[in-house]
Amino acid sequence: MAGPAENRIIGIESGRERVSLRSRLDAWQTRYAPYWLLLPALGIIGAVLLYPLVHALYISFLDYKLARSARPFVGLGNYIEAMTSASFGTVLVQNIIFAVVCILVEFTVAMSTALLLNRQFRGRAIYRVFFLLPMLTAPVLAGFNWRWIFNDRFGLMNQIFIGVGLAPQAWLVEPNLARLSIVIATVWQGIPFVMILMLAGLQALPQPPFEAAIVDGATAWQRLRMLTLPLMRPVIAVALALRIIDLFRVFDVIYIMTLGGPGHATELLPFYIYRAAFSQSQFGLASALSWITVFITIVLLIPLFLNERSGAESEKLNT
Amino acid sequence: MTSQARTSRGFRFSGRRLAEDTATYVVLSVVLLIMMTPILWLILTSIRPLVEIASTRLILIPRRLVLDNYLAVFRDYEMAAYLQNTLIVCGGVIASNMVIGPPAAYAMSRYRFRGEKAVLFGLVFMRMIPLVAVILPLFIIFSTLRLLNSYAALIIAHTAFKLPVTIWLLRAFITDLPRELDDSARVDGASPLGVIVRIVIPLIKPGLAATAVLAFLATWNDLLVTLVLSNTIKTEMVALGLTKFVLEYGVAWGPLTAAGVLMFIPTVVFVFIAERYLVRGLTMGAVKE
């Protein structure tokens, strides 16, 4: 570009030219403003999230083991190995069942609690704040809290069991009890999250339909089923989507409470991937597993988004 | 739902209302007590003498208040180092989010540009992916760059993990501002960055506070990133520190619970500060309160 030299010549004597140059710079700045405002953020996200994700995709096609320097290309080999291994099937099914159970428990308890908290009563704010604490507790700490409560010798649960004359249980050792313990630790953090979303949804509900329903003599249960739940659909969809995402990301609680055991009884996908990568050093396989998990999460979310969109459109038609 | 019911009933049914309110208190208190049990038990265990910790019988209130566990946490374990490392990393993450986040959020809120949809979708997608999927290649990259066991690696990684939420949340706050405010300033010749610093940032202080709190808590609570990116006392953070109380012969529950209480304190403080904005932050701005 001939720019700099030219500028120097003109710049000396002509103020008018300098102004126009500046305004040109301004125009350029304005035109590309969104891009350079976003640049630092996208740069760091690209480097630390996007690039590794793509890199993982690349690694997933290699026979990549940490101890070996040769990393031959194996195509879909890792994906085939993952999909055909018995343990992956078990862990996948387990993670899906785990997510379904947690969601059922969380939404039932959270919705009931939110309906009560939505009433006007003194001290409501205090209840609300305390309800939030479990959700913001570090998952590691939550894991230790429950590991301590479920401790087979000195845990609170067995102290209570012995106190009321029941036999103490090996909570984290017997497979089904271990699964129950993991679910309890997870919903303990999930319930407040869903609850606060439901409460926000309840508080944003329009009043007139409910007044009309009361005039028409609808019972509380009818109002809940015919009005509250349908009107809350968007909030419920958001909550559901976020919970599905997070229930396929549960790691800390497993790492602290059971390490996936006994056997594979409480193993969920993230911990399974972590083990493949850092215990077995099978980076290629672990990367393939990561991408399968990303893919599963997306597939699970698609019906929710489609449903939500058609719901929003039909609502628009109704009004 | 029930609030409408009440307004239409007025005062005539106040007896029934009293009964309903009492039922609400009772049910909520029971649920709250159950939800608080793990936290209460953590606190109670941390101040018990050892004989009570290793008891098969239920002892509700400690007979003697003991602070040995809290001393042990600093004397026998490296809690001070964990806390220091965590605070340094958290500080770095908050600072970088506060500098990088607002301009990006402003661009997403106020400009229509090519690729906008892709960026929006990309940010949601980044919130969705399992961390485990990214942490392995990140480990490879950081080890190639010889950045393992450094504050820099932890701050960079955490900053990137928090930025999508930061941008979404701030975007929601900026979109709430009347457009005329910054439009007129831009017509008067202020640069976009000038508008952000002088006009937008002072108006979205609550949003910034909420974002900072969320970034802090997510970093403070994180296990996986430190677990993979650091393995020396120089950079280990408090969540990973808790696992050091699991010893070969068993768990040192006394010191562990004391460390847990210390780790829990900032959570409590920040919940009380930022409670009002948490809903928005946790849903990336999708649900407003």
List keywords for this structure.
heterodimer; A: 319 residues; 76% helix; globular; disordered N terminus; B: mainly alpha; MetI-like fold; 2 domains; two-stranded antiparallel sheet; 14 helices
Polypeptide structure, described:
Chain B: Pfam families: BPD_transp_1. The complex is a heterodimer of chains A (319) and B (289). With 319 residues, chain A is mostly helical. Helix content of chain A is 76%, strand content 0%. In chain A, helix 3 (33-59) packs across helix 15 and helix 5 (86-117) packs across helix 9. Residues 1-15 and 315-319 of chain A have low confidence and may be disordered. Chain B has two domains: 17-65, no CATH class; 69-285, MetI-like (MetI-like fold). Chain B has helices at 2-9, 14-46, 50-53, 68-75, 79-110, 116-128, 131-144, 151-176, 179-187, 192-203, 205-221, 224-229, 238-242, 253-282; strands at 246-247, 250-251. Chain B has a two-stranded antiparallel ribbon with strand order 1-2. In chain B, helix 2 packs across helix 14 and helix 4 crosses helix 14. The longest helix of chain B has 33 residues, at 14-46. Chain B is globular, with a radius of gyration of 24 Å. Chain B starts with a helix and ends in a 7-residue tail after the last helix. At the A-B interface, helix 2, helix 3, helix 5, helix 6 and helix 7 of A face helix 1, helix 2, helix 5, helix 6 and helix 7 of B.
